[in-house]
Amino acid sequence: MKYKLSFFLLLMPALLFAGLGFESNHNRQIALLSAFDIEPNYLHDEELNKMLQAKKEPRSYRHYYNAMQSARLFIPTIRKILYNADVPSEFIYLAMAESGFTTKALSKKSAAGIWQFMPATGRQYGLQIDDYIDERRDPVKSTEAAARYLSSLHRRFDKWYLAAMAYNCGEGCVLRAIDKAGNKDDIFTLLDEDKKYLPRETRNYIRKIVSFGLMGIDELDMINTDYGYLMNRASLNSIATITLPKGEKISRVAEILDMDEAEMRKLNRHLTYDFVPPFSKECDVYIPYSKLNRFNQDYKPCDLKKIYLVHIVKPGENLSKIGAKYKVPYRVIKEFNHLKTNSLRVSQKLIIPTTPALLNKYKFKYAKNTYVVRPGDTLSRIAKRYRISIKKLKAMNDKKSSVIHVSEKLIVPVSKRPYTVKSGDNLSTIARRYKISVKTLKAKNNKRSDVIRIGEKLRVY
Q1: Is 460 within 8 Å of 434 (Cβ atoms)?
Q2: pLDDT for residue 14 is more than 60
Q3: 109 within domain boundaries
Q4: For 250-308, what is each residue's pLDDT tens digit?
Q5: Cα(393)–Cα(457) distance, rounded to whole angstroms?
Q6: Both 251 and 208 in a single domain?
Q7: How many structural domains compose the chain?
Q8: Which of 337, 338, 344, 341 lies closest to 317 in space, CA to CA?
Q9: Same structural domain for residues 161 and 214?
């Protein structure tokens, strides 16, 4: 019952703004702490109040509410999922602490999405992660997975603030901290700045979550900082789930709905490309709820041959050659056309899903040689170095101007010069560098053993 009440309390700011409030700020602060199983006197914690004041500095305040505004379509859905899973809805502030509600968030350790799931943990809680789809970036499915994960942590620790700590540093870390603290698990003991039972990141993590929550329920503060309109905005906006057939283009649906394509991509960052995975019968996609009626009225599935390129197989062609031609992985072409083998027949028609994302990702995969632009380089100098015209160099790289940037990669002609072995080289590293097998490299150089010597010249093309 407590968690059902907490969901209602999260909606209180909007009601208060409309003149329907009946609780003081202090009572709502107590309710917030109670949702995390934290004692009321934690409101007086010195470290918590230091962080809260820092978060209320103009720049931090602006960052907080920009995140809220950016996620306004997600927030009602996230709250509802947590509420239905009997997880306190206040855990929405954990998501804010993790990612700032940014679905494209990616940590240095490869944690992704609003809830910052690592790949292994994401799969453990039922999220699909492959070349086409990453449900860690799906606002609905990742929240459902996070609710399951938090519920399992709560079953183990029996207190929600311990579940939040374990979400950050791991179950073993929290268990060790409790053990070091003499089997005490109260928040004041575990967050002791002198004893340091928990890592500093985790000590600040729980304070950050509580600080965000206290800011979220302080409607007077919001009004004084011109952010009051956000309090009742989220309840008026949400997302709707639609299902699209395999291969459907997200950009085409955005056009039908008269939506900005960037906004459509933001709502559907779980899709790696501009299309629904070709092996799925259908896929969940999200649109603003306000666009749902228009989708139901105007959307009609389209023959994929009308929205993608169609290639007619010529004699001597195979999937690899066709993929290289369009800079699309041959496996994507194979899956799009539901081919069970790599065999093709002359005049066979193939759908080629050429999209900007695919072109960017695989532009250099099929290039036999690439050059990384250095300080002082110009297109003219690079063209001269590789004995090629500027016009041809620009054509090879789809460039309309001669502007280049440091660290930019350019496709350049293959050099026929041999490779001179350097200190630390071996056949494996050289073969990998030139995208050939060790077996091929040895054959090109009539080698029977793997022995190479510094200064030796090897044919690599």
Answers
A1: yes
A2: no
A3: yes
A4: 999 999 999 999 999 999 999 999 999 887 788 999 999 999 999 999 999 988 888 88
A5: 28
A6: no
A7: 5
A8: 344
A9: yes
- Among 33, 55, 36, smallest CA distance to 44 is for 33
- pLDDT grade for 459, boundaries at 50, 70 and 90: confident
| Same-domain status, 298 and 311 | no
Residue span of the structural domain in which 158 resides = 2-128+135-230
Residues 295 and 375 in one domain: no
Mean pLDDT throughout 312-331? 89
Q: How many CA atoms lie within 13 A of 342 on its CB side?
A: 10
Residues 293, 298, 300, 305: is their CA dihedral positive or negative? negative
Q: What is the mean pLDDT of the chain?
A: 86
60 and 195 part of one domain:
yes
Whether residue 358 is contained in a domain is answered as no
Could you tell me the CA-to-CA distances from 344 to 28, 308, 317, 339, 341 in Å, in that order? 67, 19, 8, 9, 8
In a shared domain, residues 379 and 394: yes
| Separation between Cα atoms, residue 461 and residue 454, nearest integer Å | 19
CA dihedral 151, 133, 336, 306 (to 10 degrees): 110
217 domain residue, yes or no? yes
Q: Are residues 376 and 265 in the same domain?
A: no
**Which pLDDT does position 38 carry in this prediction?**
97
**Do 338 and 372 fall into the same domain?**
no
* Exposed/middle/buried for residue 176 (C-beta within 10 Å: 0-12, 13-18, 19+): middle
**Residue 421 C-beta-side C-alpha neighbours within 13 Å:** 18
Task: Return the exposure string of 3-31: e unless at least 16 CB atoms fall within 10 Å of the residue's CB, then b.
Answer: beebbebbbbbbbbbeeeeeeeeeebbbb
Q: What is the CA radius of gyration of the chain?
A: 28
pLDDT of residue 366: 61
